[in-house]
Design brief:
heterodimer; A: about 230 residues; 8 helices; B: mainly alpha; 14 helices; about 80% helix; about 0% strand
């Protein structure tokens, strides 16, 4: 016997926590790039395949979270941030997991060996892409504090600083990408052309993961601007 | 009139029963809406909320409920029309009480949106307009009441918006929100105390003061209210001094400790909310009762300027407490569990805005809906970008409750009216 106009019906489920949970899972997925490529460099394909399975699991989990999130976002919700911006952030976050799975799937499928001269640069490149994702996650983690302050004051400045850090990190990734591509260019004549093509492709896609992480930050900035 | 000499006691007992029945309904269901925000934000446990509700609903009803009671009692119907037939007024008020109480029960079981205020106003207008004549309704007053239903949520929303903005500005956006929160919290507590005292002295205690021969000027009232406010602030500061900063809590959310300060503040706004609810909603139950008692005891003289006996307000207060004790705690638990997204700083702003609005409305004698006012206040905080997600469908439910409750209350009242008239009318 509870009134259906009880005040509790007024409160919808805040989208912030689900968004943060999605981001956590996505970044966890992306951080598995490092053990994956270490296994690849060590020529341990069984190990790499196991890690790929984990990545695929994470990616599936993120997809499920994404679907739930969207189902909980009816247009009648009144939120302190735009529904479109939130869905935009969610889509970008999800792309991080998708791209991670794609890269690993390709490497695994073609059993691609990374030329030994590139190896140390390559791992550093992967690590720095993962760091970009980490920084994006940090910014997303601030959403509940942003809500607490009502999107004003010191907290906004703090988040803006986090986003600047994120941008700087992405530029570092860019730099490493150019360097790596240049080194690959120097030796590309010695490697079968198809393999070279896919190596460029892999490098490109890992850079794309960092780019997407930066996009998450940019979307977040849009949310602050309003 | 012969009716009153023969059946006077019976009529008063019936009215008392129906009034108690309706007060029970208010306590069982409606109070939970007023207190749910405090329980949901974990500022209070259910037990604490029940205790606060019992004390302050009762105090609100007794100390500040008089004005609304008199509106319900004699403001909605035009007394002059009933001068020659006071029995109709008695039947009408009896049927209004029974109709509103029954409707509250039925609607609650079915889960339909209802409002106690709207039920009783609808019922009174219904019996008067259809059972007697359209002239029997004081349409001017009714339209003021209906307008207040639209205005009160808007005012509460505006106040809650302003209060939350002040909280943001003074506390949340500062570098040291915890220290600032402790610094400014007593100021808000003063406001709570001042507000409750002011309305109580100015409006509620008028009848008490008259009885014991005290008269206060406006200035004196302000001084007393300020003193009470300071007393509340000191009490609050004492409670606040026990809140120490716990760094471990800040790992997850840097504002965890700030919210603990607001949780203390919320104890005070919860009291004011219960007080406001008592002052406004108890009157819905006891207003018609007061009308019946006044007519019967004066032997049918409508115009008699009788002072309302205190036992009427006491009965209403007791009914609410009884409703809380028998059923209200369950509803409060259910509502509290559903409101988990509301943090104390938000709950505080919304409650203070709503309580202030309701207390003021009670002071002017306007019966408004506490729930709707609280909804307005919560939306006000939401507009200040304070709440994660609000479900705007609730606004539709409010409109539905207007459309459904007013005619339902009126229809039931008309049926009961003709029933009572048939039973007692032959006398």
């Amino acid at each position: 016997m509870v009134f259906s106009n009880s005040i509790s019906n007024l409160f919808g489920k805040s989208p912030i926590k689900p968004l943060q949970e999605h981001m956590s899972l996505v970044v966890e997925c992306a951080s598995k790039l490092e053990p994956f490529f270490e296994a690849v460099l060590a020529d341990e394909w069984q190990n790499a395949s196991d890690i790929f399975d984990q990545i695929a699991d994470d990616e599936n989990g993120a997809d499920d979270l994404k679907k739930q999130f969207r189902l909980n976002m009816p247009k009648s919700l009144f939120m302190p941030m735009s529904r479109g911006d939130l869905l935009g952030i969610l889509a970008q976050q999800d792309n991080i997991a998708n791209a991670t799975k794609d890269v690993c799937g390709l490497v695994l499928g073609r059993e691609m060996a990374i030329p030994s001269v590139l190896q140390s640069d390559f791992i550093a490149y992967v690590k720095s892409a993962i760091q970009t994702c980490e920084k994006a996650r940090k910014a997303i983690e601030e959403l509940d504090e942003l809500l607490e302050t009502g999107f004003t004051g010191q907290e906004v400045k703090f988040v803006q600083k986090l986003i600047r850090d994120l941008d700087a990190q992405e530029q570092k990734v860019d730099k490493r990408e150019r360097k790596l591509r240049h080194r690959l260019f120097k030796i590309e004549a010695e490697i079968p052309p198809v393999h070279v093509m896919f190596l460029y492709n892999i490098i490109d896609n890992i850079g794309g993961i960092a780019d997407t992480a930066e996009q998450v930050g940019n979307q977040l900035e849009l949310l602050l601007a309003k | 009139m012969e009716l009153f000499t023969t059946y006077g006691t019976l009529l008063i007992i019936l009215a008392g029963l129906f009034g108690f029945f309706m007060a029970w309904g208010v306590g069982a269901n409606d109070v939970a809406n007023a207190m749910g925000t405090s329980v949901g934000s974990k500022a209070l446990t259910i037990k604490q909320a029940i205790l606060i509700a019992m004390v302050f609903e009762f105090a609100g009803a007794y100390l500040a409920g008089g004005e609304v009671t008199s509106t319900i009692r004699k403001g909605i119907v035009d007394a002059e029309v009933f001068t020659d037939s006071p029995d109709l007024l008695v039947f009408g008020m009896l049927s209004a009480l029974l109709a509103a109480g029954t409707w509250l029960m039925v609607a609650s079981f079915m889960g339909w949106p209802v409002s106690t205020t709207h039920s009783i106003v609808g019922a009174i207008v219904g019996f008067a307009a259809v059972g007697v004549s359209t002239d029997a309704v004081n349409w001017g007053k009714v339209s003021t009441i209906v307008a207040s239903w639209v205005v009160s949520p808007v005012i509460a929303g505006t106040m809650a918006f302003a209060i939350f903005r002040s909280v943001q500005h003074l506390i949340l956006i500062q570098d040291d929100p915890f220290d600032k929160a402790k610094k400014y919290a007593p100021m808000y507590m003063f406001l709570v105390g001042f507000l409750m005292a002011m309305v109580t002295i100015l409006k509620g205690l008028k009848h008490v003061f008259k009885d014991i021969g005290i008269s206060m000027t406006f200035g004196e009232s302000i001084v007393w209210a300020i003193m009470f406010g300071i007393f509340v602030a000191i009490l609050g500061s004492f409670l606040l001094s026990k809140v120490k900063r716990d760094e471990a809590l800040e790992a997850g959310n840097r504002f965890a400790n700030v919210e603990r300060v607001f949780a203390v503040l919320m104890i005070f706004t919860a009291c004011s909310m219960a007080f406001a609810h008592g002052s406004n909603d108890v009157a819905n139950a006891v207003g018609p009762l007061a009308a019946v008692v006044s007519v019967v005891s004066s032997g049918g003289d409508i115009a008699a300027k009788s002072v309302m006996p205190s036992w009427i307000l006491l009965l209403g207060g007791a009914g609410i407490v009884f409703g809380l004790a028998t059923y209200g705690y369950k509803v409060m638990g259910t509502i509290g569990r559903k409101i988990t997204e509301l943090t104390p700083s938000r709950g505080f702003s919304a409650e203070l805005g709503a309580a202030a609005t309701v207390v003021f409305a009670s002071g002017t004698g306007l019966p408004i809906s506490t729930t709707h006012t609280l909804v307005g206040a919560v939306l006000g905080v939401g507009l200040a970008r304070g709440i994660g997600a609000l479900n705007l469908r609730m606004i539709g439910s409010i409109f539905l409750s207007w459309v459904v409750t007013l005619p339902a209350g009126a229809g039931l009242a008309i049926i009961f009216f003709f029933f009572f008239k048939a039973v007692f009318g032959s006398v």
